[in-house]
Amino acid sequence: MKPWDNGKLQVSKNQKYLRNGNQPFFWLGDTAWLLFQQCSLEQAYLYLKNRRDLGYNVIQSVFYHPIQDQEYCRPESRIDNPDYWKHCDEIIRMAEELGLYMGLLPCWGDIVKNKTINEDNAEKYCTFLAGRCQERKNIIWLVGGDVRGSDAPETFRTEGRTFKKLTPDNLVGFHPFGRTSSSLWFHEEEWLDFNMFQSGHRRYDQSSLGAWDDNAVKEGYFGEDNWRYVDRDHSYSVMKPTVDGEPSYEWILQGLHDTSQPYWREWDVRRYAYWAVFQGAMGHTYGENAVMQFYDGSIPGSFGVRDMWWDALHHVGAGHMKHLKDLMEAVDYQSGRPAEELLVSGQKEKYERVSVFAGKDYLFAYDYLGKGFTISLENFKGRKVSAFWFDPASGIYSYFDDMTGKEQAEVKPVARFTEDNDWVLVLKAE
């Protein structure tokens, strides 16, 4: 069954999550920015089926992108090329057949900044796109594209309003610049159905690199604490769902530009995912450096890319994301909440943070370093409580205690003796 068979994708009643009709929809996205430009139909199917089988349900991609070292995108992908659009149509159809939503950007933000797409032609272009995609059931529109909303606010508003007017049953979001959120510019816009933030690719100590992509003070900077973007997006008087639409990618340089820096790895992408979701995000988006640009050696690679995309497709972090999705879908997560107050041992900073998410019949606590903590069981008084360690790398539950009757519990997972030692405490009440 495809998700839209349960009903159209829409915001839940509590304004924090998404649903297909009455069925919860956990956004598990992958960034495939150059899918249309770089892939043949055979390659596109390989990619889409791989991601579908790994549990992904949203593929984020862009129609029009200025590939590195070229002023505009390839000739075959220009707006007036009918063969290119037939190619795009077929990839979108493939995704629909596989039950995948496509989060589609009209163009990358640079194309708006250089005014190729502007206030004069944005409505015409988006009308063209809406018309081509109106029969497809798997469309989510994303405007922006790694850009600040303030760079061309009226053009972005025109795009968003056009999509909402012509395809009212499709959700519309905005993909923002690194370490910012759509909420900074468009939270009150009626066309914006959900917020998206890009927590980005920098470490805590890389807040200011003296680079062109440093952030302004007014935008805020949370380092690797991507959960703080969720808190900020949920602080508005009118609630909208939010998602980290671009956290640190697997096998991308920390800070992006300096090849002497280490790479983000699978345990890093897990941390971003659990921190955001346990803080109340509507899901999460994963990314892999070679895959997002579909690096095949035909164009200059970016950000220290090491592998051909068809090899990088199998990097292990991509397979770990499904375990989080399965964990959340096993409970009524849309009625749950962040529950840091249940952390009796107290909250700590940065990598020592323990994220807690709880509902009526369950409690999850993500411990990135595996150092242990003390948790309150006051919500489960009078009920049988079973305790498990959940391995975010394998998805395996391992039972370790009956905590029935306890007011609190001091827990510590067994050490893996590897570079990663993150675990999730799972408490289930009956």
TrEMBL record:
Please report the stretch or stretches of sequence annotated as the Putative collagen-binding domain. Answer: 338-427
Q: Which residues form the Apiosidase-like catalytic domain?
A: 12-333
Superkingdom of this protein's organism: Bacteria
Q: What is this protein called?
A: Collagenase-like protein with putative collagen-binding domain
Q: Which organism is it from?
A: Cuneatibacter caecimuris
